[in-house]
């Protein structure tokens, strides 16, 4: 399918094709969760809180760009992300670790439900190398 000859004259019907889909947004969401996990493990609760808040914003963007997933994403946010945020707010690492494992399992279950069972996300085994995770 050919696109418009002049990208400055996109029709309103063309605009949704430019919006990032879940395949583009989910790696960024996973990156935020990775950083939140290792931030919490390092005792850098402000970093963990910020990463999860940014992750929640990305999920909100997902519901706008791909509204057919809005209900499922809202359920995941309520059932899995909000408990992670609560564990971070109380700076409770054991609760955070438990909720993290549940959130990862739930994400992979959603992949299966959405016929993307070939996507099995796991937390990387080491912290992000580009961040100093020490609490400030």
Describe the protein in words.
This protein has 136 residues and is an all-alpha fold. The protein has a domain at 22-113: Four Helix Bundle (Hemerythrin (Met), subunit A), CATH 1.20.120. Helices cover 63% and strands 0% of the residues. The chain is built from five helices and no strands. The termini are far apart. The relative contact order is 0.14. The mean pLDDT is 91.
What is the gist of this entry?
By secondary structure, the protein is mainly α. It has helices spanning 15-18, 22-41, 45-65, 70-89, 93-113. The protein has a domain at 22-113: Four Helix Bundle (Hemerythrin (Met), subunit A) (Up-down Bundle), CATH 1.20.120.
Order of helices and strands: HHHHH
Distance between the termini: 52 Å
Structural class: mainly alpha
CATH class of the domain at 22-113: Mainly Alpha
Q: In CATH terms, what is the fold-level topology of the domain at 22-113?
A: Four Helix Bundle (Hemerythrin (Met), subunit A)
Q: In one word, what is the shape? A: globular
Write down the Rg: 17 Å
Query: How much strand content do the residues show?
Result: under 5%
Total of helices: 5
Low-confidence stretches: none
Strand-helix topology:
Blueprint: H1 15-18, H2 22-41, H3 45-65, H4 70-89, H5 93-113
